[in-house]
Amino acid sequence: MDTIGSRIAAFREARQLKQVDVFRATGIKQQTLSSVESGTEPKSGIVAALLAAYPDLSPDWLLTGSGPMLRDGRALSPTAAPPTSPASPARPAPLQTQPGQVDFVNKYITRLENDLAAAAERELYYQARLQELLGKPSGNLSYAAEPTEVHTMAAAPIGPRFDRCVLRAMYADVVAGQVTPLRQAV
């Protein structure tokens, strides 16, 4: 076995794995794996992904071809490991928690919840203060002036930019029947 790709293929065959199984366990695309097994030099991320997904695979054997295929010193035969079915791809073992980690995470969640509640209270305070300063009744967060406050001329000026308030005033006049629209809606 001259290349890393040929050793990957040998490991796969010994474990009775398909390229799809290796993809599911490592995230290495099938096309990339096929290219590496055909002789393309793999990037270091591919080797790292294989060693992370299959911790019993010997790095020395994978990189140089020397020594046994597995870390514990045994050679892998096709019957040494049961085949991985597509329904249950090889996955790393679940992480073990250290003492105090659960308490730390729970305290952190409580702190975040308290911060969120304080932020919601501040938001309510600032909304009430803003409404008080603007003289608006509670619940009306529109900052545009009412049409009667803006429209003081007989006809609104027409220019390249229309102020939102002017447009509201013009619309109110059309609805009230004081101005006839230029075009009837179809």
UniProtKB/TrEMBL annotation:
<protein>
    <submittedName>
        <fullName>Helix-turn-helix transcriptional regulator</fullName>
    </submittedName>
</protein>
<dbReference type="InterPro" id="IPR001387">
    <property type="entry name" value="Cro/C1-type_HTH"/>
</dbReference>
<dbReference type="InterPro" id="IPR010982">
    <property type="entry name" value="Lambda_DNA-bd_dom_sf"/>
</dbReference>
<feature type="compositionally biased region" description="Pro residues">
    <location>
        <begin position="80"/>
        <end position="92"/>
    </location>
</feature>
<feature type="region of interest" description="Disordered">
    <location>
        <begin position="72"/>
        <end position="98"/>
    </location>
</feature>
<dbReference type="GO" id="GO:0003677">
    <property type="term" value="F:DNA binding"/>
</dbReference>
<feature type="domain" description="HTH cro/C1-type">
    <location>
        <begin position="8"/>
        <end position="62"/>
    </location>
</feature>
<dbReference type="Pfam" id="PF01381">
    <property type="entry name" value="HTH_3"/>
</dbReference>
